[in-house]
Structures are given as C-alpha cells and as structure tokens.
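Changelog note: in this version the structure field was regenerated for every chain. One regenerated record is shown below for reference.
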Amino acid sequence: MYKKIILFLKKPFNLESYISNKLNLSLLHGLFVFVFLNIFKPFKLDNLKEDLFGYTILMGVLTFLVPFLFFLY
C-alpha cells in the first residue's frame, strides 16, 4: 500500500495546455476559496453576517478569473 502511494506521487503531473484543463483548474481553485471562506470564516469574516455570502462569492469569482486570465496569456 505504501509503495503504491509513493509510486503514484512520483509520477509527473501531466497538465496539458488545453483551455479545458486551465478552466477546470481555475474553477476548482475559485470553488475551494469560496467553500473554505464559508466554512472556516478566517480573518474575522463572521463579523460581516449578512454580507458574508456576497463577499465569499466575490472572492471565489476573483480567484477563478485572475488565474484563468493569466493562464490564457
């Protein structure tokens, strides 16, 4: 079991430069940021109360768009 994990981790990460791969990676990154901010509420985000959802949506969208735009160029 341990050897299988080590062999899996030693494989190179094959990220082809297809637009769909870049889109998926950026989308998952933005989704992770949105979920993380909603669950753990770091940086005293719990003080926002009503605005928390909108703020975390904005942060998720920004962390999706900025890397995706950089991936395009």
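Spot check on this record: DSSP finds three helices and no strands in the chain. The chain has a mean pLDDT of 88.
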